[in-house]
Amino acid sequence: MRKLIVSTIMSLDGYVEGPGRNVMALPMDGFFDEHNLERQRAADTLLLGATTYMGLKGYWPAVAENPAVSPAVANTPDVADLHRETGQRNNEMRKFVVSDSLTEDDTAPWTDTTTIVRRADAHEVVAELKDQPGKDILMFGSRTLWNDLLVAGLIDELYLMVGHAVLGEGTPAFSTGPVPPLQLVDTRRRDGSDNVLLHYKVVNRDA
Q1: How far apart are CA 162 and CA 112, in angstroms?
Q2: Each residue of 18-64: pLDDT tens digit?
Q3: How far is residue 150's CA from residue 9's CA, in Å, rounded to a whole number?
Q4: What is 4-202's CATH topology?
Q5: What is the pLDDT of residues 7-26, one digit of tens each?
Q6: Range list of β-strands (E), the chain
Q7: Beta carbons of 99 and 52 less than 8 angstroms apart
Q8: What are the structural domain ranges in the chain?
Q9: Which residue from 118, 108, 96 is spatially nearest to 44, judged by alpha carbons?
Q10: Per the UniProt record, which residue ranges are transmembrane (predicted)?
């Protein structure tokens, strides 16, 4: 059985979005970008909520073609290859988006690699995906979806990058559902970054 992995960033006070659902309030630095590419290299499938899917779709295809359109590359040109590879992998990876509102018309230019899953079918589809051969299944963002799957016992590991920003309010990382026990596997830092990466394994409550 392959693993379902969540990779997300949150503020020091536990928010994945700032006021007004502003994700740009979080310190998404080079360490964050490098880690996400590392996780992509270990995966062959993306599982996303509709908001995250539309955000990635609206950004990465253009960066794959020309990394210079990325503000991060404009500020630091030597990360162009990292952003190009990230964009290319986002284009090529198989994608499942959980939504009751999206249609095939909403998926271009990712139509050929996208499967839309209705919310009522999400748990069954995810369980089936985990039973298939392959590399990791990876989730970026998608806070509502991964919290639901976490409570349902379908998430295997969490990579939580804790940023140095204190937002005061916003969208909390965890919902009010009963979170299963988490076991700390590793912590990482990178020189030049004030962010800390926490890697947790979700403990199987039936084990």
Answers
A1: 34
A2: 999 888 899 999 899 999 999 999 999 999 999 999 999 999 999 99
A3: 16
A4: Dihydrofolate Reductase, subunit A (3.40.430)
A5: 999 999 999 999 998 888 99
A6: 4-10, 15-17, 43-49, 94-98, 114-117, 136-140, 157-162, 171-172, 182-188, 196-202
A7: no
A8: 4-202
A9: 96
A10: none
